[in-house]
Structures are given as C-alpha cells and as structure tokens.
Design a protein that fits this description.
β1 (536-538) and β2 (541-543) form a beta hairpin. The protein has helices at 3-31, 35-39, 48-72, 77-115, 128-177, 185-216, 218-243, 258-289, 298-321, 336-366, 370-392, 413-431, 435-466, 475-484, 488-517, 522-534, 545-576, 581-607, 615-627, 630-645, 685-690, 717-729, 766-784, 801-811, 816-844; strands spanning 536-538, 541-543, 653-656, 659-666, 670-674, 680-684, 693-695, 703-711, 741-747, 752-760. The relative contact order is 0.03. It has 845 residues and is of the alpha+beta class. It folds into 5 domains: 48-117 and 128-178; 185-466, no CATH class; 553-624; 635-695, SH3 type barrels; 703-783, Alpha-Beta Plaits, CATH 3.30.70. Strands 6-5-4-3-7 form a 5-stranded antiparallel sheet. Strands 8-10-9 form a 3-stranded antiparallel sheet, covered by helices on one side. This is Mechanosensitive ion channel family protein. Keywords: Cell membrane, Membrane, Signal, Transmembrane, Transmembrane helix. Belongs to the MscS (TC 1.A.23) family. It comes from Rhizobium sophorae.
Length: 845
C-alpha cells in the first residue's frame, strides 16, 4: 500500500516535468518570430527586381537626354549618328532587363501552380503559411509585370526615337543634296574675292605651322613618318611575298590567260591601294597622336591624304583595267588610243573631284564663305560633265580586225547616248543651282564606279579560279603542290576555296566603301555589322550569326576531340589490354555517337537556338516516324541492340539468309558483310535482329573441317583410316583436343566412303589445311596402291538378229539395199544402250 503513494508522486512529478518542457518550447516558439527584427538591422542586398527597377529609372533618364540631344542636333549628321548608336545600346539594355526577370517570373508561375488556388467557400481552410506564401508570390509577380511593362514601354519609346533620328538624317541628307543656290555674276565676283582672301590666310597658317613644327616638333614629325613608312612597307612586303606574282606583269608572257589578267588586275589594284591607304592613315594617326597637327591644319592634312588616295586608286584601276601601254594585258576590247584617252579622262575626273574635296576642306578650316564652296563645286561639276560629253564622241572600241594600233570604232549606240545624257544632266543640274546634287553625282560616278568595277573584276577572278581544273595552272597552286604534296583533286578543291575567299574579299572591301561613299558613317556600318551578327530577326525568331558560327566551331571542336578520344582509347588503352576487336569496335562506336550527341547539344546551346521552338516540328516528326520512318527507327534501335548485346562483332564469320562472309562494320542503320568474293553486302540491322543469323566465330574461332574420301572395294578400311589419321597428325594447325577421327560412312555403289574430321583453332586456316591435306592423301594412296575408283557400269550386248536377217536376204534378192541397212541399225543399237547406261551410271555416281 505504501508503494501506491510513492508511485503516484513519481507519476505526478514526471507529468509536471513534461508539461514544463512543453511550456518552455511554446515560449521559445512564441519568441521565434522576433528574431528577424534584429536581422532587419543588417543591410540587405538588392534583389533582382530592385536592380531592374533602378535600371529602368536610369534608362528613362538616358532616354530623356537622348531625346533632347536629337532636338538640339537636328542639323548635325555626325551628332545624330552618335545619338543613334547610344539609343541602340539603350534599347538592348532595356531588352536585357526584361530577359533577366524572365527566369524569376517562371519560378513564381511554377510555384503558384504547385500551391494551387485558394480554397473556395465551404472547403476546409488552408494553412496560414501557404496563404502567406501565395500572397507574397502574387505580389512579386505583379511587381515583375509592372517592371516588364515599363521596360516594354521604354523599348517602344527608344525604337520611336531611333526612327525619328533616321528620319532626321534622311531629311538632312535630302536637304543637303537638293539645296538650291542662285548662280549669278555677283556670286562669281564674291567667290573670286573670297578665294583671294582664303589663299592669303591659308598660306599664312601653313607657313606658321611649318615653322612651328620644324622648330619644336621635328623629332615627332620624323618619328611619325618613320612609323608610317614602316607599317606600309610591312604590308607591302608581306603582300609581295604572298601575291608577288599577281602584283606585276610578266613581260615574257606573250599571250597571258584570262585568269592571269583578272588576277593581276584585281590584286595589284587592291594590295597597292591598301598599302598606300595604310601609309596615309597611319601617317595621320601618328602625326595627330604626337601633337604635330594643329586643329586648323589637321582636317586639311586629312583631306590631302584622302585626295592622294583617291587619285592613286583611280590611277591603279585605270592601269589594271585598260592597260594603256600593254594591250595583251587589257581586260576590255579597246584600242590603244581609246584605252589611253579613257584612262586619262577618268584620271582627270578623279583629280577634279579630289581637288574640289581638298579645297572645300581648306575653306571650312579657314572659315571661308559658303559661296566659295558652291562655286568650286560648280566648276568641278561643269568640268566633269564636259569630259563625259567629250568621251561620248570618241572611237575607243577595238577595230574589227583585232589590231589595237588600228583606229577604233565608236561606242555602242546606247552607251554613247548614256554618257551624253549623264554629262548634260550634270551640267544642267549645276547651272540650275543644285550644286550639291551635281557634286554628289560627279563623285559617285568616279569613285563608286571604280569601286564597283574593281569588285566586278574580283568576282570574275574568283569565278575563273574556282572553275574546275583552272586553279592548277596558278603559282599558288604550284606552291601548295610542292609544300603539302597535294594531288589534283585536292588542288581543285583548294581552288574552290580560294575562289570563295576572293568573293569574300571583294564584297567585304567593296560594299563598306560604297556605303561610306553614299552617306553612311563608320558607326552606321558598325551598327549594321553588330545587328547582322547578333540579332537577325525572322518573324518572332531572333537568330545570331555570331552565335551560330560559335556553335559550329564548338561542335567541330567537340567532334574532333571525340575522334581523338576514340583513337587514343583504341590505340593505347584497349590495344595494350588486348581487348577483343569486336569490343573495341563497340566502344569506339558508342563513344562516337555519344560525342556527336554532346557536340550537337553544345553547338545548339551556344548558337542560342531555343529548342522549344521546334516542338511543333518534333510533333510532326513523331507522326512521320510512326508512318514513314518506322523502318529507319527500327534499324536504329536494332543497331544499338547489336552494339550492346553483341551477338556478333566485327571480324566474325556469319551467315544470314543468302549472305555469308566477314563482318566489316556495324553502324546504327546497317551492317556491312564482306563475302569471300570481296563483295560488300549491306544488311539492315532489323533483319539481323529479327532473322536467323549463324555465327561461326561467336564464342571463339574453333571450327570443324571435313574431307570426304572414297576408295575401291579391294582396299583395307583399317589401313585407310590409319593413313588418314597419320597424315592429319603431321599438320601443326590441327587441334589434338578434340582429336581427329575418321568415320566409315557407307558402302557406296562403287566405293567405300570415309570422312576425315578434325578441328582447327582458327577457321580461317581451313581452306589451306584442307588443300594441303588432300594433296598428301593423294600421294600416300598412290604410294600404298590404294585406288580411288571411278563410276562403273555393267553392259550386256545381244547379237541374235544377224543370222535371221542373212537368211531373209537370200530369199529376197531384189531388196538388197533394205536388207543391207537393217543390220547396221541393229548394230548401232547396243552402242546407244552403252552410252545411255554409262550416262545413268555417272548420274548415280
């Protein structure tokens, strides 16, 4: 009884202890939400949403600044180009903001789908923590939608600004071209007086600058000149080493080929012009970098270098195309006099344009009045128009007899009329006051025409070189043949690549030059190139050519790495481990397919191609696979099964249907079997999986060979068997376990039939072993007197009809011919029977 109170007190104490622990835990749980209050005092990093909001506000400020700048610089094309570049960068930045928020938006969307909708009326309430999470995610999603909407509106505003800038530049260009100036005598007088004043000011500025440079900037001047000459000489010397044979004409060649003339015309014009351009550009760069040029002299020096480059380019073009002094290198059918006259006229027009540009730059630097620039352009347009009209009345075409020294013929009627119309239109445009338009047309006639003609010559050169069996006659092809030991086919393929490279050089050099001449700026070309290589839009799909090229390079790199890994594993790891040939082939094939798959995934990912865009295509392909491609898929799966299960391997001797031979290759679609007649049979993998396939070397190459032997009935069977076993024992390739043995098969119609059976470690040796063994058997049988019988037949000849026929002949003397023929027919009958029985015996044997 005393134990009961003690037990009750113990139970009570344990209950109080458990209750105390429970209340302590509840108190701790109640205090837990207060922990973040202390944490709130620590600085928090901005979330992606906060960063996006700040970037949007910053972009709005930048957009406002760009809009104000466009309004203030509506008449300045250079400033508008800079503003357009900044606006394009801002547009890409805004798009990036939306793209960066997209992953978080998808996460919120997926999480809300997992949580589900809130419970409806009448349903059990959900946990408070779930409701709080849904409310927080919904609020964050609303904020992301708001920021994304601001980004879209901002992107639309930036696009609108870009369109406005483009329209301003287009209107400014049109206003500049079609601005009309009144041409009168007073205008000419004002221009003359302004010209005298400009010459005086420019001479003073030039002399003061020259004396300053000589006294204080002598060393930087010589350093800039030296560095410029070094750059040009490096380019020129390297070009001569690579294209030396295409930069000068060989006087020893009497009748140069068309491809040779084209190549020399294109490369001599391009390389030498580029060398001079490098000299002029580097000279201006170094002179400006070393502070040799003053702000008022720098644009004049730049214009001077540009004029020199223009004149030199046109001169090289004239010499390359028309070849005034070397008619055999001429690319057009002109007489000598016509080539010289046209060449001089083109060069004169280039000089007039260059001087107009140079004097115009001097006028801007000296602050000359606009009337002087107008008059200079007027004079230049009039001179060029008169030159075109004069050229149209010439006789430059080659005579009909083909003699370049003979007097030429008139232009084709259409071309002569075009030259006169262009020349007269140029003069009329200038005289009516549209001097800017006339100057623009004159400049494009000379420079753009020369660039287009050079591009055309380059394209013709590429076409001629890429023509089949044409590249082999060139110097570069001879160098490749000597250096890399290339054959005719490889040289012909190299010619195709060289032709494509010439196409690329002609287009990549010519098109930017033409765009620059037609009013584009360098920033415009950079923007076009950037958009071309990063974001080409086809409907709603954005394609990046740079990304595609990167993806192709990565795919090629991973593919080559896979091939190297295959060779390394096969030649080092598996070969040293003496792995079976079939296993090595399966491993190589599996690694190859795995590597190609990984390379494709890496390439597609690097190219930025969204695989979800191909969902519709994939669904269509699945239908096609279900109908038209089921055999291909079946063969593909069967090929994978063959590589993994390996019922046969490369090198096995197999029999499948009518095909018997050695397995040479196992691919995912078909297996190549080479017969013993060296015929390759391509068997679909599905037939090998679903059909019966005999494999003579599945586990090993051990196989049994048989040699049938027949002897005469008078031979001793035991002696025959002993001889066969004795001869077989002398063959080293015959296995001793299982040991050879001889079977006494049957009593044949004319012989005793035996069969020698033995095993070989490699069935591939069976043919040689059987041949040698047959020879030894034949020799031994002859030595032992054992006969190998031939087919035998017993014949019975009956001659009973001859006496009866003789008696009948005596009784009937008038029928001698008939009685004489009858015995001969009956004598031939046994012979026919003999032949028939012999043939029957052969068939039975």
């Amino acid at each position: 009884m005393r134990l009961r109170p003690i037990l009750l007190r113990t139970i009570l104490l344990l209950t109080l202890a458990v209750a105390g622990a429970h209340f302590k835990g509840a108190a701790a749980f109640a205090q837990e939400p207060q922990a973040p209050a202390a944490a709130q005092e620590a600085p928090l990093t901005d979330t992606p949403l906060d960063q996006a909001t700040k970037e949007i506000e910053k972009a709005k400020v930048q957009l406002t600044a760009l809009q104000d700048g466009a309004k203030q610089n509506a008449d300045n094309d250079d400033a508008l180009v800079g503003l357009a570049t900044k606006a394009d960068e801002l547009s890409r930045a805004v798009i990036t903001i939306s793209v960066n928020l997209r992953p978080r938006f998808d996460q919120i969307k997926n999480r809300l789908a997992e949580i589900g909708d809130p419970p409806k009326d009448g349903q059990p309430p959900e946990a408070q923590i779930v409701a709080d999470e849904r409310n927080a995610l919904t609020a964050e999603r609303a904020q992301i939608n708001a920021v994304t909407g601001d980004a879209e509106n901002l992107s639309i505003a930036v696009t609108k600004l870009l369109n406005e800038i483009i329209e301003m530049r287009r209107r400014l260009f049109a206003d500049t071209l079609f601005r009309r100036t009144e041409i009168s005598v007073s205008v000419l007088d004002d221009a003359a007086s302004a010209f005298v004043h400009e010459v005086s000011e420019f001479s003073q500025a030039l002399s003061s600058w020259a004396s300053f440079v000589w006294k204080f900037k002598r060393f930087p001047l010589f350093a800039a000149i030296f560095l410029s000459l070094a750059s040009a000489l490096i380019l020129l010397s390297g070009s001569y080493r690579l294209f030396g044979s295409y930069l000068r004409r060989d006087e020893a060649i009497e009748n140069p080929s068309y491809i040779g003339r084209l190549s020399i015309a294109f490369w001599s014009t391009l390389i030498r012009t580029l060398a001079l351009s490098v000299l002029l550009v580097t000279s201006f760069f170094f002179l400006n970098s070393f502070n040799v040029l003053r702000p008022d002299i720098a644009p004049v020096i730049g214009a001077l270098f540009g004029a020199i480059g223009l004149v030199y380019f046109v001169g090289r073009f004239v010499n390359a195309i028309f070849a005034p002094r070397e008619p055999r290198w001429r690319l057009v059918r002109l007489s000598n006099l016509g080539a010289r006259s046209i060449g001089y006229c083109l060069l004169a027009m280039a000089i007039v344009n260059a001087l107009d540009y140079l004097f115009g730059t001097i006028g801007e630097a000296m602050g000359s009045p606009l009337v002087l620039t107008v008059v200079r352009s007027l004079i230049a347009a009039l001179i060029i128009g008169l030159i075109l009209i004069a050229v149209s009345f010439g006789k430059p075409m080659l005579a009909k007899n083909g003699d370049p020294d003979a007097p030429g013929r008139h232009w084709p009627r259409g071309l002569g009329i075009i030259l006169r119309v262009v020349g007269a239109g140029l003069i009329l445009t200038a005289l009516t006051g549209y001097v800017g338009l006339a100057r623009f047309i004159a400049t494009q006639l000379i420079i753009t025409g020369a660039v287009i003609a050079t591009m055309y010559v380059g394209l013709l050169s590429g076409k001629a070189i890429s023509r089949q069996e044409s590249f082999a006659d060139t110097f570069f092809a001879s160098f490749l043949t000597r250096r890399f030991k290339l054959g005719p086919v490889a040289i012909d393929q190299a010619g195709l690549l060289v032709g494509l490279a010439i196409y690329a050089v002609a287009l990549l050099v010519g098109i930017p030059l033409i765009l620059l001449l037609w009013g584009f700026h360098v920033q415009d070309l950079q923007l076009i190139a950037y958009r071309l290589f990063t974001e080409v839009r086809l409907g709603g799909i954005s394609i990046s050519l740079l990304g595609i090229c990167t993806g192709i390079l990565l795919f090629a790199g991973v593919y080559l790495l896979t091939r190297w890994l295959q060779r390394w594993l096969d030649g080092n790891v598996m070969a040293r481990s003496h792995v079976d040939l079939g296993v090595r082939n399966s491993v190589k094939t599996g690694i190859g397919y795995l590597g190609v798959g990984i390379a494709a995934i890496i390439g597609v990912s690097a190219a930025g191609i969204d695989l979800s865009s191909f969902a519709l295509v994939a669904s269509a392909l699945s239908v096609g696979i279900g109908f038209g491609l089921q055999n291909i898929v079946s063969n593909f799966v069967s090929g994978l099964i063959l590589l993994v299960e390996r019922p046969f391997k490369v090198g096995d001797h197999v029999v499948s249907g009518t095909a018997e031979g050695i397995v040479k290759r196992i691919s995912v679609r078909a297996t190549e079997i080479e017969t013993f007649r060296k015929q390759s049979i391509i068997v679909p993998n599905s037939e090998l999986i679903n059909g019966l396939v005999g494999n003579w070397t599945h586990r090993n190459k051990i196989g049994r060979s048989e040699i049938p032997v027949s002897v005469a009935y008078n031979a001793d069977p035991q002696q025959v068997m002993d001889i066969l076993l004795e001869l077989t024992a002398k063959i080293p390739l015959v296995m001793r376990n299982p040991e050879p043995h001889v079977e006494f098969l049957r009593f044949g119609p004319y012989s005793l039939d035996f069969e020698l059976r033995f095993f070989l470690a490699d069935m591939g040796d069976g043919m040689a072993v059987r041949n040698n063994l047959r020879i030894e058997i034949l020799k031994r049988f002859k030595a032992e007197g054992i006969e190998i019988p031939l087919p035998q037949t017993d014949l019975t000849i009956h001659r009973d009809a001859r006496p009866a026929l003789a008696d009948a002949g005596k009784d009937q003397p008038n029928e001698q011919e008939k009685s004489a023929d009858t015995p001969m027919q009956e004598e031939e009958q046994p012979v026919r029977q003999l032949r028939s029985k012999t043939a029957d015996g052969n068939r039975k044997g």
